[in-house]
Structures are given as C-alpha cells and as structure tokens.
Amino acid sequence: MVAPSGPVEPGRLAAGCAALRATGLNVTVAKHVPDSVNLDDSAPRRAGWQGLAGTDANRAADLTDAWCDPGVRAVVCARGGYGATRLLDLLDWDVLAAAGPKPLHGSSDVTALHVAFGNRLGVTTSFGPMVAGLLGADDPDAASTASFRAALFGGPPVPVTGSAALRPGRAEGPLTGGTLSMLTALLGTPYAPPPAAGRVVFLEDVTEAPYRIDRMLVQLLQSGWFDGVAGIALGSWDGCGDPAELAAVFTARLGPLGVPLLAGVPAGHGPRQHTLELGAPVRIDADALTLVPLPGGAR
Q1: Is the pLDDT of residue 299 over 70?
Q2: Higher-confidence position of 109 and 299
Q3: Which of 97, 121, 153 is the last residue of a domain?
Q4: Catalytic site residue 269?
Q5: Given 36, 107, 108, 144, the catalytic residue
Q6: Which of 123, 153, 183 is the last residue of a domain?
Q7: Which CATH number belongs to the domain containing residue 284 in this structure?
Q8: For the residues of the chain, what is the DSSP string, one character each?
C-alpha cells in the first residue's frame, strides 16, 4: 500500500488495512506512507497547510519499490488529494516496464498514475475505492467492497447499472478516463491522456461547481480529445451542485458528439464506488443503462 498524494489519517489507514486483510490480502505498508510534509517538501507539516504524504522523492521511491518488488502482487493507493502529478517526472519508466504488470488500484488524484501507467507501460489499471477512503469507513458500502475484491482476485465480469440515458445507443471499446479535473490538468504535458477515439470514456469528479465542469469539458472538446469517442459513462459528481444543472451541462456539451451517454454510474467519489478496469474493453448500453466489462481485460 502506497500514498502517492495527500497525507493519510492514521485511524483511517488502520481501518482500511484491516478491511484489506479481511478480504484475505496480506498488507505491506510502504515506508513513507505515515509521513506528512508541506507542499515545498519541508517537514514538519504546518497546521492548516495543504500537505503531502512525504516528499516527492520518497513517494516516488515507495511506488517504484512496490511496483518492482516480485513479492508484491498489487499496488493499492491509500488516498487521493493532491501530489500524484509531481511524481511523474521522477519515475524511471524503463525500470517500471521491466518489472512486469500488476494491478495498480486507486482513484481521484491517482488518475494521473492511471493515465501514465496505461500509456507508458501498456497495462490496465483499477479505478476504485481507496484504503483510507471508503474501504476504511465505519460502514463501507458492501457492493463497493465486493467489486473491489473481485477486481483484485478475479471473477466473472460484473455489469454496472447507471441511472439515466442522456443520449441513447450502444458502443464497445477500451475504457478510459477517470477524474475530470485530473485529465484536464494533464493536457499539454508529456503525460497527457491519449485521444479517446474508439474508446468509452468514464468521467467523474467531486466538489466542482457546474460552471467549472462545463469549462473542463470545453477544454477537452477544444483540444480534440473527444474526437471519435465511442461512448461516455458519467459516474458520481458528489458535491458538484444541482443534479439537474449538471445533466443539462452534460447534455449540452457531450450530447452533440452523437454517442451513447450514460449517467449515474456508481463509481467515483460517492457512497457507492464500483471498481472499473481502465484500459479493458467494455460495452456501454445507454438504453439498458449498463456498462458491461468484456473478455480480454484481465491482466
């Protein structure tokens, strides 16, 4: 278990590790997960300041060590927050590629790692609840926990049911995307998400006002990222304002793409966090309100 972004609250960390062990996993906590520093990498962290779970160098080292350790079967992130993009220039991608694939699991700020690992290493990655987040909550959602366990241990594909079709239709393609603000933050960098042509895009975010969501969608559209997209699945938008206003924004910005547009997929930052395998093939059926994994996604 690594912490590539924000500092981890000890109680939630302990509860999350206990939840992982309850699923039958042996948990090793990376060396610097308990650390907490300021944004300039100085310690000790000052009260009220935004923090990181250790210096950039130490967080990058923890991630590299875990990925390259043959005794580690999966790398699971403790939480999101901020800081994952700062690691991308510090990772030796040749070393990581030589270590071979394994599951990388996390969400939110970890979207930066999903995009970079998928693009540079050619691996699928796992977007879902994190150790010090929902998994470490007092009463975690049972379906979310089961989906997380199935993603790590394998099993038959589990369809995900959305709540509304903002545009009808069916399509298939590899799943891509993640947290909207992170995808836009990567544009114009060497780690920018590859174009979504031929892919099914998953998008979600948290505590972003509708006008900011609109602006980020416009940025992606103007960059050409959505050109040729096969379909779009919208996850949770916890704390993002009036759901009716959001639906209007999504319909206005994404509807003209002319592809299936499914809303209400229980994945992201909400109380239900289904695990999705980014890079793996899926079928989106907005008429049936489903997002279904297809064979070929298992590592």
Answers
A1: no
A2: 109
A3: 153
A4: yes
A5: 108
A6: 153
A7: 3.50.30.60
A8: -B--SS---HHHHHHHHHHHHHTT------TTTT--EETTS-SSPPTTS-EESS-HHHHHHHHHHHHH-TT---EEB---SS-GGGGGGGS-HHHHHHT----EEE-GGGHHHHHHHHHHH---EEE---TTTGGGSSS--HHHHHHHHHHHH--S---EE-SEEEE--EEEEEEEEEEHHHHHHHTTSTTPPPP-BTSEEEEEEES--HHHHHHHHHHHHHHTTTTTB-EEEEEEEET-S-HHHHHHHHHHHHGGG-S-EEE--S-SSSS----EEETSEEEEETTTTEEEE-TT---
Q: Which domain holds residue 63?
A: 10-153
Q: Is the pTM of this model over 0.90?
A: yes
Q: What percent of the chain has pLDDT over 90?
A: 83
Q: Which of 5, 105, 144, 204 is catalytic?
A: 204
Let me know whether 265 and 148 are in one domain: no
Q: Specify if 1 maps to a domain.
A: no
- Please give the tally of structural domains in the chain: 2
Select which of 208, 269, 274, 277 is catalytic: 269
Q: Are residues 57 and 107 in the same domain?
A: yes
Mean pLDDT of the chain: 94
Average the pLDDT over 130-156 and give the result. 81
Let me know whether 171 and 140 are in one domain.
no
Q: Kindly tell me if the per-residue pLDDT of 190 is higher than 70.
A: yes
